[in-house]
Batch of 2 targets.
Target 1
Amino acid sequence: MVEFLGPLSGFGVTFRTMFAKPNTEFYPEEKTPTAPGFHGRHQLNRYPDGLEKCIGCELCAWACPADAIYVEGADNTEAERYSPGERYGRVYQINYLRCIGCGLCIEACPTRALTMTDDYEMVDDNRAGLIYEKDRLLAPLEPGMTEPPHPMQPGSTDKDYYLGTVRPDAEDPTPEDPTQEEPAPEDGSHA
Ligand code: SF4
Ligand code: SF4
């Protein structure tokens, strides 16, 4: 008797599903917005004048439990400067075959150089294609930014950059209104 009821209950599931509301996702034609704070592709951020925030300290690589990050720092010089201060990230790689999206790396970053975006479309058909380097991780240049290498803003120090008091490298800087608060940096990403 039990053997007879088993298949019947299975058909019952099929029958109920035939009348249930379809739950079809039409990806990639229709994309569902990600949840707030989604851990997607990483981004290496810039200061408002285009200099890179990464100082090549490797803290993100040491924090990564999956050993997915490889960093090689190098010295800035006055003739060739990529970031404020002494060092910059000359080589920066994230291996998305290893990354588990935990976000520990962005917590470890002392300059907020590294954040994560909503981009989850990281696919390829070979291993090398999923090792992202600076060309795919660096934030795009926004208006007022200049591609490094270039000097720091005249009269500013690396501390001014860290404190967020450096303005974009615009042609016609508008005089600062002391009654206005400094706007929050917009790096197009989130922690
Ligand atoms: S999100 Fe996690 S696994 Fe991925 S690179 Fe960062 S620390 Fe490593
Ligand atoms: S991303 Fe942040 S933690 Fe990683 S090397 Fe650059 S500055 Fe250091």
Target 2
Amino acid sequence: MYASAATMQASRNTALSKNEAMNTNAQAPQKSPATALCEPCSGIQRHWRKAPGHAELVQGTHSREDRGNGQASFTRYRCDRCGAAWEYENNKANQHAGWALLSH
Ligand SMILES: [Zn+2]
């Protein structure tokens, strides 16, 4: 009797990995603001705890957020003189929480 040995054919599939270049759509170019911040606004020290605002800021909405490391509260302001929108973050745990310019 003759026993035929089964030959194993190992076929190797090389998976071709597709290199897909992700092209993120470039955003529309932002217009540089024609008007500059007014003098008191440009003098505000940003991202620094307890930095003062200025007298012409009008207080807007107020909100609170739990940041895990403590409560942060946010107050929106709008400058009466130049129209800049500011947000003041009060957070005891963050020395760099303070004024942030939202839009102008
Ligand atoms: Zn201003």
